[in-house]
Amino acid sequence: MPFDGVVLSALKKELISELVDGKVERIYQPNQFEVNLYIYKLGKTKKLIISANPSLPRMYITERQKKNPEVAPNFCMILRKNLLGARLIGIYQEGLERILKIEFETKSELGDTEVKYIIFEMMGRHSNIFLVDSNYKIIDAIKRLSFEDSPRPILPGIKYSLPPVLTKKNPIEVSFDEFASFFKSSNKSPENILTDNLSGISKQFANEVILRAQVFEKSLENADTIKRIFDSLKELLYCIVEKGEILPTLYTEKGNVVDFYVIDLKCFSSFPKKHFSNLNLCIDEYYFKKEQYTVFIEKRQYLQKVIEQNIKKLSQKYEHNIQKIQEAKNAEVYKKYGDLILANLYQLRETNEDFVEVIDYYSEDLSTIKIPLEKDKDLKQNAERYYKLYNKLKKAEEYAKAEIAEIERELEFLQSLEALLEKSQEIEDLLSIEEELEKEGYIKTQAENAGQQKKKENQKSKPHHFISSDGFDIYVGRNNLQNDFLTLRFASSHDIWLHTQKIPGSHVIIRTNNKEVPQTTLIEAALLASYFSKAKHSTKVPVDYTFVKYVKKPPKTKPGFVIYDNFKTIIVDSPENIDNFNKVE
């Protein structure tokens, strides 16, 4: 977790500079864990986010806006009643613990000056936001806990007390003798020894301390080694906490945020990074991208579930129809029974038996055959019954074959979306897939304004664009709507169209500009077609290619579905990644 006590101490200094002597102008609570305070100071309004989210507790200033509920939650109303118009007069940290106290000066109903506090405990799933009075009596908290729920109840009227788990030593105040005692008879790693015994220190910071102390040996019994770790700890804390020498740094991996810290960590030297002049800006970008990524993952998981459920349902329906076709094989037997009963009717007598034995005119030796009968029906009625069974099974077979054809089209559509979903990298890609699923009835249509918003988002999404080693433009559809657009509207008749053979995937277009396309460009385009398909990372993937003029879309077919002829096939091994391809941003 990047937000440790060291980060909080550096953030506190920025918050004091930005917010102290400011006036509380507005208060919102966009969700059950988060409070937004709008503080007006020197002609500017700053938005302070305080979030007790169990997985992402945080606090920082941001200019980004969120939609607030029409009806404010109860805790928000209590904050407004007590703090609207109040002056923020101080911000304090409990040692190096992840506890911050914000002091407000406000007026009572009688006009007397009063002091109230927001106390923010940033402690993972136990994170909480308190509003307390000058005597530290709890006015309310964003998360209440009863006497039955916790040994430390959190309810209005109870006096606030620090969490009972705060037993670690303040690293700024710890002496060398105390520090050395942590290492006695301990089999833990030096990083764990630091985090287990010192407050406000994250695993990242502990790793940095050990790395800067140049401690690589496993044994930590040597006093000189422990002293190097102690000196490294004290030097880092002095530079960051006392002198305020910080360089806020954000670390990424494959475009996703990994971590941030108040200094450039040597233990993250292999990661791409971005420096900030302001810690709030760094934290803001980290959590904004973190939330974006979380939303992206949740949306992708939701769409994957929708697609998988529908594929499963269609597969079951497919098997049911196959069974119907298998059952229809008996239809000819029933017709034969009906024919033989009528053919032998002139020489048969009505019987009480549950069968009748007749000459089988369909056999070469004209042998006899026993035909089951229903006793409550005469021979002619039994013949009619067999004809009805025959007609019923033949109709069921005809219907099942039509159903199977439709199911196969639907499965192809869903599998193409599944392949596109695997390659989706931006939320706009997911929104377009969601829109396709809505249009085809797999997801209930959202409100019109939500749909309009999606369309606006989708307009931002563009096909992947690559330049081949021979200088030809290659375009790859991100979704089925783009596939249709690329093939049917964007490409000219003499451009080359590529697609994995009988494998769901993206449409790929090579812009020929009426020039002959070299084999190297064809291979590169085929590699992209295989990568952006269900055959990703497979070997010997067949990729069909032809001129766009030979690609047609049958009427009333689903997005992305086309038929084509006059094609050739190229076999490629799908690449592990496309880092070596020249992609146009």
Automatic annotation (TrEMBL):
One of its GO terms (molecular function) is rRNA binding. The keyword Protease does not apply. Residues 462-556 form the NFACT RNA-binding domain. GO terms for biological process: rescue of stalled ribosome. One of its GO terms (cellular component) is RQC complex. Residues 390-440 form a coiled coil. The keyword Manganese does not apply. Keywords: Coiled coil, Protein biosynthesis, RNA-binding, rRNA-binding, tRNA-binding. Belongs to the NEMF family. Key component of the ribosome quality control system (RQC), a ribosome-associated complex that mediates the extraction of incompletely synthesized nascent chains from stalled ribosomes and their subsequent degradation. RqcH recruits Ala-charged tRNA, and with RqcP directs the elongation of stalled nascent chains on 50S ribosomal subunits, leading to non-templated C-terminal alanine extensions (Ala tail). The Ala tail promotes nascent chain degradation. May add between 1 and at least 8 Ala residues. Binds to stalled 50S ribosomal subunits. Associates with stalled 50S ribosomal subunits. Binds to RqcP. This is Rqc2 homolog RqcH. It comes from Caldicellulosiruptor obsidiansis (strain ATCC BAA-2073 / JCM 16842 / OB47).
